[in-house]
Specification:
The chain is an alpha/beta fold. Helix content is 21%, strand content 15%.
């Protein structure tokens, strides 16, 4: 057996289409494997069945057994990613195994892949539809340290609120909700309040989670005694923007040390943090960056806006110092202002998870170096072998079709 002690396979993540392949089978025999990324692709037979029937039951027993059995001996696996880049399917009973109340029509039971991994601590589930992963599936996840939920239309604010009360959620230290369209801020408040071990929280979505009309707002509406890092990125700020500012100002996050808010249109979050002399990075003014311009909605645009707020404050007179003796004013000194709060312990960060990226949050496009077309990723400036152009074998030896340049990515940055 080659590499019997293999712990991870990095840089190549092929699409799994519910059919046997030798690479996946080989990985399933490595008992010490610690991390696995699944890109679940489409399968012709499943697609054909979906045209005649509704879920569940689109995966046949053989397809379920094949996928589930890959996990049988991964007793050392700590990190698992399940992502559907297109229309890939994993049904509810493949995710979890519900062991009680079998007669409930919405509860699921089955092989429960996630419950076959005794060392599992870090889990990312992304881009599955409501027939595969929903509120009820969420309630039966195993106990975890890190969880990222992304683009899951079946998970609602109700499911998140219930999950905050589940015993299996109490150990979560890092929680990321990406493009989950949380409707009400009460779900976020419940998660922050009840997850007592939470150190890092990430919220990314287009719409603002609002306060229900019948609820009375008492600040701080959000609070967490242990939270140290907050990533808050809402494209349309709404009342959530004002509520997070008010919650920080009212002492809702006593241990908060870093906040990253790419969308801070009025600078209210920046004003709560330590004053900084410089926010823009040297790379923002490189020749390449200037040639490409500043993409709207990216980190460079956010840093430019934050830097502009700094510079505007520097040119605004905020204090006047008067030198007076015997009732006579001898001199008046104008002191210009600054952006931030003196004495604050919160750092205002606009740096990306992945170096040189214009996106704050790491995503699957940052780790893929395989079949980019299959997952809808467009890459530029790939490798054609030029680094080896001086080889004596000539161009025919070193030149190859352009492919993405691989770079090491730490998967824990997803959480």
């Amino acid at each position: 057996m080659t590499c019997p002690n293999l712990e991870k396979l990095v840089g190549f993540y092929p699409i799994y289409g519910h059919e046997f392949n030798r690479l996946t089978h080989a990985l399933s025999t490595r008992r010490r494997l610690k991390e696995q990324i699944w890109f679940i692709g489409e399968n012709p037979s499943i697609t054909q069945r979906s045209q005649k029937q509704l879920a569940p039951g689109l995966m046949n027993p053989e397809q379920k057994a094949l996928f589930v059995n890959y996990h049988n001996i991964w007793s050392s696996l700590t990190t698992l990613f399940l992502h559907s880049p297109g229309q890939g399917i994993l049904e509810k009973d493949v995710f979890v195994n519900e062991k009680s109340n079998w007669n409930h029509p919405r509860k699921v039971r089955g092989p429960g892949v996630l419950h076959r991994l005794p060392s599992l601590k870090h889990l990312c589930i992304s881009n599955f539809d409501m027939d595969d992963f929903d509120d009820y599936t969420l309630q039966h996840l195993p106990p975890l340290h890190s969880l990222r939920l992304q683009d899951l239309e079946g998970v609602t604010f109700w499911g998140l609120s219930e999950f905050s009360r589940a015993r299996n959620a109490f150990g979560i230290r890092k929680l990321a909700l990406v493009n989950m369209d949380v409707l009400y801020i009460s779900a976020i408040s419940s998660l922050l309040l009840r997850l007592k071990n939470l150190k890092k929280f990430t919220l990314v979505q287009d719409t603002s989670p609002e306060v229900p009309p019948e609820e009375i707002v008492i600040q701080p509406i959000m609070a967490s005694q242990q939270l140290e890092f907050l990533h808050w990125d809402i494209v349309v700020p709404g009342s959530a923007y004002e509520n997070v500012v008010a919650s920080i100002r009212r002492g809702g996050f006593p241990r908060l040390r870093t906040i990253r808010a790419p969308n801070d249109p009025y600078g209210m979050i920046q004003a709560l943090c330590k004053p900084r002399a410089q926010i823009e990075l040297p790379s923002d003014w490189s020749a390449e960056a200037l040639a490409e311009g500043i993409p709207e909605g990216g980190l460079r645009a956010a840093r430019r806006a934050a830097q502009q707020r700094l510079e505007d404050a520097w040119t605004t007179v905020q204090f006047k110092v008067m030198v007076e003796e015997n009732g006579i004013v001898h001199e008046i000194f104008d002191l210009n202002g600054f952006m931030g709060t003196v004495g604050s312990r919160i750092e205002y960060s606009l740096e990306p998870d992945v170096d040189a990226s214009d996106h704050a949050l790491i995503d699957f496009k940052d780790v893929i170096a395989g079949d980019d077309a299959a997952v809808g990723i467009k890459r530029q400036k790939g490798c054609r072998g030029l680094w080896n152009a001086e080889h004596s074998g000539g161009m025919k030896w070193w030149r190859h079709a352009e492919r993405p340049r691989w770079k090491p990515i730490e998967l824990m940055k997803f959480f």
